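Quick start: what a row looks like.
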Amino acid sequence: MDLRRSLFIIVLIIITLVIAIILSAGGPFPGLETTNGSLIGNVSIGPLCPVEPCPISHDQIVAAYAARPITITTAGGSFVGSVIANPDTGYTISLRPGTYRVDTLHQGVGGSNLPKTVTIRAGETVLLDISIDTGIR
């Protein structure tokens, strides 16, 4: 009986060690990462006034950014998320590895450099700066 118990304990130890090695190596299936990547960038929106210097407050500038959220969808069009850029620090969003379409609301007569398609890889950061022309002249 003691031999069986000792053999059982040795097998359990070996299985535990194998699982620990597999987990520390990143998993048993290469290419199936579960780590997210990041999409980051700066956003410029303008002009915000028809003349310079532009006498609007910082709160009004923040409102202009809030009115144009950045939307993220899958290549098939399913909504993934949205983010509102900060006029001072830009935007950042964590995404699972995959291919996404980045866009914003298109308002008025202006335009933007969107939509764009980006590919996110595990643990990597993709930089996408966005420029929005309000059409104000």
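That is the whole record. The two ends are 90 Å apart (CA to CA). DSSP finds two helices and ten strands in the chain.
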